[in-house]
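User: Okay, second chain of the day. Same drill as before: sequence in, structure tokens out.
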Amino acid sequence: MKKILSFLALPLSIFATQTAFGQSVKTDSFTVSGNCGMCKKRIEKAALIPGVTSAVWDVKAKTMTVKYDSATVKKDDVRKKIAQAGHDSGPFKATDSVYQNLPGCCRYERN
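Assistant: Same drill. Structure tokens below.
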């Protein structure tokens, strides 16, 4: 009987964890400066910090869409990491030295 109860408790605990996590999952979109496929790889890689489950940057629209656990990550945390990789994102700007180290095709027009 004890084995049966343990077997039944496992799926219930997994369900409870998924439900609790599911309630804090958020999806946000924001603008990120960049030009090409190399930028896309760099931007998406930078955005995949712990707590982010999905990061997709649209090259033409210059829009990043991220799915993340809002209990552990803030949208601005993601934007800061992208800026550290060399791509301006709203109020978070890449430093001049990081921007200058981008390949020529990745140097977007800065405001």
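Confidence is low (pLDDT under 50) at residues 4-21.

User: Thanks, on to the next one.
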